[in-house]
Amino acid sequence: MELMDSTSDEPIPLPVHISKPDHQLSGHEFGKSKTRFGMLKDHRSKRLLKPIIDIRGKREYDFYQTVWNSSDVKLQSFVPKFYGLVTIENIKFIQIEDSMEGLANPSNMDIKIGSITYDPGADVKKIEEETSKSQWQAALGFRICGFRIYNPMDQNCTLVDKFVTRQLKPENIPEAIDMFLGSKFNSLEIRIELSQNYLSKLKSIQEWFETVNINHLKFLSSSLLFIHPCDNQFVHLKMIDFAHVFPNASTNQGDNCKDVNYLFGLNKIIYYFTTLHESLIQKQNTSQISV
Where is the composition biased (Basic and acidic residues) (predicted)? Predict the structure, then answer.
């Protein structure tokens, strides 16, 4: 495999054990992003590799260093494990845990958090580019970037990409989440348990933002990655994408400054998962009564 230098058209050869991850749903895709750089997978170490080619990569590296050198065990439980840097053909990469590694045919969903997903210093062009991605993101506080569903019945994966999810209206969000949970093949009982397990993890992240992340960090254009294997025995929920994390401090002494942009989107996601969860329970109760 070859990596294109961002300053040249000449390809840079990569070791055979490194390639594009097959489960990436959004973000800078190798060979297709503006810089031609993107996330890679080292199949020998089983780790994901994120290139450092500008201030965004440096910012993400600093974030991982700060988190994993801290005593904040709760935040660490939400963030992929960090394994330092590796240099490949003079390009530095951040090494992080692949949260899907070793899971049996997992399904995954990427949700971008926040009504605002551009940096404080973004120009008009960048703001227009971000706001045009979804007409409902300002009201929802998030956008579904895509999801992949593994169907154990036919042993096939279905990809619902960003071009489909961007068209989702707010009233269609619970149905989309239910589809991710396997509405076409999983029983009500399984989907109730999955939604409950995701809600538990979402509320744990919510608690951190409400009680710990005060006058601390502002997460812009960050995502939540939802993962469950095909046997539905557990769920993973990880915060990912930290190239746009900034200090968040109040300008007024004594104020408790929270990341209201992230919390707004997170609370909306919890609302939609709760709405779905309660509707699934109602369907289950109705079906039991009819029997």
Answer: 19-30
pLDDT digits (tens, 9 = 90+) for 231-277: 999 999 999 999 999 999 766 655 689 999 999 999 999 999 999 99
Length, in residues, of the chain: 291
Contact (CB, 8 A) for 84 and 93: no
The beta-carbon contacts of 39-46 under 8 Å, at least 24 apart in sequence, are 40/3, 40/14, 40/93, 41/98, 42/17, 42/18, 42/86, 42/95, 43/17, 43/18, 43/19, 44/17, 45/83, 45/95, 46/98, 46/101, 46/102
CA distance 274 to 195: 8
Could you tell me which residues are beta bridge partners of residue 224? 111, 239
**Banded pLDDT at 27 (limits 50, 70, 90):** low
Angle subtended by helix axes 260-290 and 188-211, to nearest 10: 160
The domain segmentation of the chain, as residue ranges, is 2-97, 107-290
Tokens of 72: 């904040």
Helix orientation angle between 173-180 and 260-290, rounded to the nearest 10 degrees: 70
Tokens of residue 222, six digits: 């960050």
**Topology of domain 107-290, per CATH?**
D-amino Acid Aminotransferase; Chain A, domain 1 (3.30.470)
Looking at residue 119, what is its pLDDT?
A: 84
